Amino acid sequence: MLEVITGFGVVAVIIAAGYHLALKEALGPGARMVLANVVYLVATPALLFDILIDTDPREIFSTGFVVISTSALIAGFLGFLLLRLRGRSKPDSLIGMLASSYANAGNLGIPLAVYILDDAAAVVPVILFQVAFYAPSTLTVLDLMNSSKQASLMRNLLQALTNPMLMAAIAGMTVGYVRIPVPVILSEPVGLLAGAAVPLALLVFGMSLLGSSVRPNWDVAIVVILKNFVHPLVAGLIAHLVFGMDGAALLAAVVLAALPTAQNVLTYALRFRTNEILARDAGVVSTLVSFPVLILITYLLG
User: Fold this and answer.
1) Fewer CB within 10 A of the terminal residue: the chain, N end or C end?
2) Does the keyword Membrane apply (predicted)?
3) Cβ(125)–Cβ(65) below 8 Å
């Protein structure tokens, strides 16, 4: 337990450093966006590739993947249903669905997986499910609801397939599966860039907290309860009762489900000009709530 608390302490210190840098404007205007792009386009894809070239793809597409996808869909459907019962529109409820179940696997999931699970590869099934299936299918439905009626499944699929993290994951799994030797001239720079992913992601996350404000309401409360409590509970029940998971496997399934709402949800909300406030507030509140929840989960299952 002490090691877990120490791990959270390390994460918290780096996040605090990012917040302080933003507060003092030490890196100049626009620094957060620049660093976020470095994390998204370069460092995290490099980390995924570096991990997966030595990982058996069968470890990725296992029962854990089923637990992750099923629990996310259940939590998301509950979010959609409850918001509809509150009189919200279908597009607004779809954003609420994502906010209730779309986990911050990239920016926060990888660092926490390193310190809690000691396995950064554990987040790969989450990223694959969300980027390759969950986001494209939901965005297509939002497109269909758009007044322009210019929905394009192919466009959404192409957007997903050109996601840097998905491309890196596919490339890494391919290399790992066929056991292609990676030349040093490629593996060394990839490894160096991979080492920057975790600290930079945490710095960027800390910088993003500056100026965050929340408007408390029942919609936010519903989404946060689903994301921080119901989602990991459902994942734990499916993992243990259906697949007989225990120990490290059960811990990984519950921890991944307990990750807070991803910032991607706000991006999608802004793109469709739908429920932006809920997407933003859910990201902030679920993140703050996730830390004590994750500590409790690790204490109970670790």
Assistant:
1) N
2) yes
3) yes
Set out the domains of the chain in order of their start, with CATH numbers.
Answer: 2-301 (1.20.1530.20)
The tokens for 227 are: 């994301």
Q: Please give the Cα distance from 141 to 129 (Å, whole number).
A: 17
- Within 117-246, where are the H helices? 124-129, 135-145, 153-161, 164-178, 184-195, 197-208, 218-225, 231-237
Residues in the chain: 302
Nearest to 108 by CA among 202, 37, 5, 209: 202
Residue 213 to residues 12, 33, 281, 283, 285: CA-CA distances in angstroms?
A: 20, 19, 7, 11, 10
Helices (runs of H) and strands (runs of E) counted in the chain: 18, 0
Asked if 11 contacts 111 with a C-beta cutoff of 8 angstroms, the reply is yes
The tokens describing 74, both together, are 């259940």
Of residues 244 and 144, which shows the higher confidence score? 244
Q: Give me 69's structure tokens.
A: 């996808």
| SS3 of residue 188 by DSSP | helix
**Residues in Cβ contact with 1 at an 8 Å cutoff, skipping those fewer than 6 apart:** 298, 299, 302
| CA 74 to chain CA mean position, Å | 17
Q: Which residue has the higher pLDDT, 60 or 297?
A: 297
Segment 92-107 shows an average pLDDT of: 91
